[in-house]
Design goal:
2 strands; mainly alpha; 2 domains; 146 residues
């Protein structure tokens, strides 16, 4: 049983999956930092710091006027927290846009590296079969002239 487990773990696809998860977690940190530290402050400046998180409607029950969403939730009233949903959607769109831009840059760098590698490789000459066919044609052409 240990041998089977060792074989399972040593397979390339399991190791590739583990590496993918680790890289994905690290990439998540980069994207979160990009959004929180670079994009959101700029958007805050452009929008005047508008935050919809504390916007809600009371469906039933009572909530003190001007209460935050946290207080409204703790009061036990049924609330419709549309602001929290709007902010989640906005954050999703910002993160999706940031991931799109990062992937686009990564693809461009990979493509440039691939083309550079192609340029460095010498062009492959004709195959052995192609050379033999050329020799055959030259010999047939010479024999026809005699």
């Amino acid at each position: 049983m240990f041998r089977e487990f060792k074989t399972f773990i040593a397979r390339g696809n399991v190791i590739d999956l583990a590496v993918g998860i680790i890289i994905g977690a690290a990439f998540t940190g980069i994207v979160n930092s990009l959004v929180a530290d670079l994009i959101n402050p700029v958007l805050g400046l452009l929008t005047g710091g508008i935050d919809f998180t504390d916007r809600y409607l009371v469906l039933s029950g009572t909530v003190p006027d001007g209460s935050s969403l946290a207080v409204a939730r703790q009061s036990g009233a049924a609330i419709f927290a549309y602001g929290s949903f709007l902010m989640a959607m906005l954050n999703f769109l910002i993160i999706a846009w940031a991931v799109f831009l990062l992937v686009k840059v990564i693809n461009r760098v990979q493509s440039a590296a691939f083309h550079k590698q192609e340029a460095e490789e010498p062009a492959a000459g004709p195959s052995q079969e192609e050379l033999l066919a050329q020799i055959r044609d030259l010999l047939a052409d010479r024999a026809a002239r005699i």
